[in-house]
Specification:
By secondary structure, the chain is of the alpha+beta class. The chain is 24% helix and 39% strand. The longest helix has 25 residues.
Length: 192
């Protein structure tokens, strides 16, 4: 196996949070932003330990992983209080700042089920290819974890209930997604 060292542009990787992201009292959230040894829709597989060096560097430098809305660096929506690796993946715990307009909207969209994922913003430091051509990510520099609309790792779900939604719930989810899209479009046109 040959390791590749690279410094490309910032990459993003999505994880459907389903029941992995919980919105608690005071908009506290926790979940997994990345799961190890699972191929995403782009064919990438994050390896255990891929974040260790980056997390240690953040700790040494006293810096934090940013919580963003849809990977937009001009739209922070909260703070990640802890970002750690465990045997399963990259676990995050933090708070959405509902005192901000975007934070309040994000919390409402999560409660309604309209937002379905977390996504990491990172740079690949070391990677390789397996026999099937999948990119194995061995070391990543983690910049941010965003709340996002569309997941790239749909298997990052725990509860069978999220797979067995009723027709009524699916119809409500579709309507909420359409509403969220309309709100984003309206907000975008106002800021232009």
């Amino acid at each position: 196996m040959t390791l590749t060292y690279c410094q490309p542009r910032l990459e993003v990787k999505f994880a459907r949070f389903g029941d992995l992201l919980n919105l608690g009292q005071d908009a506290q959230i926790e979940g997994y932003a990345s799961l190890f040894n699972q191929s995403d829709q782009g064919g990438d597989v994050v390896q255990p330990g891929a974040y260790a060096t980056s997390l240690a560097r953040h700790k040494t430098n006293g810096t934090r992983i940013k919580m963003l809305w849809q990977h937009d660096p001009t739209r922070p929506i909260g703070v990640w209080d802890t970002v750690t690796e465990d045997a399963r993946g990259l676990q995050v715990r933090g708070r959405i700042l509902t005192e901000t307009q975007q934070g309040a909207e994000a919390a409402a969209l999560i409660k309604a089920g309209a937002i379905e994922g977390l996504s990491i913003g990172y740079r690949t430091v070391k990677s390789s290819r397996d026999a099937q051509g999948q990119r194995l990510l061995h070391e990543l520099t983690l910049w941010e974890v965003s709340l996002v609309t569309f997941p790239m790792l749909p298997t990052a779900r725990l509860d069978a209930q999220s797979n067995a939604k009723s027709d009524e719930t699916q119809t409500q989810d579709t309507g909420l997604r359409a509403l969220a899209h309309s709100l984003r479009a309206a907000t975008k046109s106002l800021s232009s």
